[in-house]
Amino acid sequence: MKRRGLFALLRPGWPDEARLVVQQPVFARLLSRAPPRGSCLNIGSGEGLFLRFLNDIPELSRIVHADLQPPDLGEWRSDLRNESAVASLTGLPFADSEFDFVFCTEVLEHIEDDVRALRQIARVLRPGGTVLLSTPTPPAPADPAHVREGYTFPELTEKLSAVGIDVTGHEFCFHFAMRALLNAWRWQYALARGRRSYMPRAVVRAFGYCDRWFPLGKPWDVVVVGRKRARA
Question: How far apart are CA 179 and CA 162, in angstroms?
């Protein structure tokens, strides 16, 4: 078993593995004050980075993982709490007030019409429901897949308030070590002509733990928790 674990750490690593190391404790701290319960929409679930995190929240009775391509639920495929859905954040195929909790990380910066996206989040969230959202905050590393660099905390707070969501807590994350990881990882990936990563998972995770334990330099990601205002 030990040899198998060692070989796993020597396999090619990807930046999301470091992202998980850094962000998961931040998410847990922000949600610990009022743990979400009921139905959850994990929008922009991608390759399922936070499936385990969400499934470890016992108060969630239903978890819908949605993205532009059908998410692979992996080991949770047979878990009746979990559902896979195809959806765009600018046109969510769900009813008004269908969810008690919306989880959306590193998605908003990819969307041109961010106002419409936030309105959709507010629409499917019940009054009094919780949203957890993360996004880069300037100055963030350049990413050709992003339509904007990110948002300052006041900008994000204002945008959420405009759709009826009041921010109740926030933390910043990603510092010098994560910036160094992205630069190094992209450099070696470019040398491989975008075909594979030569950076072992152990190295990627080491960068993540360094950033988590030694948050040096200016942060370039912000995580907010908010609550939808109750109807008057």
Answer: 32
For residues 136 and 154, give the distance between their C-alpha atoms in angstroms, rounded to a whole number.
13
pTM: 0.93
pLDDT (tens digit per residue) in 112-140: 999 999 999 999 999 999 999 999 999 99
Which residues, in sequence order, are bridge partners of residue 221?
136, 173
Share of residues in the chain with pLDDT > 70 (%): 95
Strand partners, 91: 88
Read off the tokens for 106.
């590193």
* Predicted local distance difference test score (pLDDT) of residue 231: 72
Contact yes or no for 204/17 (Cβ under 8 A): yes
Cβ burial 148-172 (10 Å sphere, 16+ → b, else e): ebbbeeeebbebbeebbbebebbbe
Interior CA angle at 135 toward 104 and 116, to 5°? Answer: 60
Residue 3 has pLDDT above 60, yes or no: no
Give me the sheet containing 82-86, strands edge to edge. Answer: 82-86, 60-67, 38-43, 99-105, 125-136, 221-228, 165-173
- CA distances from residue 10 to 113, 198, 202 in whole angstroms, order as listed: 40, 10, 6
- Please name each of the domains of the chain with its CATH number: 12-173+218-228 (3.40.50.150)
| CA–CA distance, 83 with 67 (Å, rounded to integer) | 12
Strand-pair partners of 42: 65, 103
Residues 6+ apart with CB under 8 A from 84: 64, 65, 66, 70, 71, 72, 73
Distance between CA atoms of residues 58 and 133, nearest Å: 20
Instruction: Calculate the average pLDDT of the chain.
Output: 92
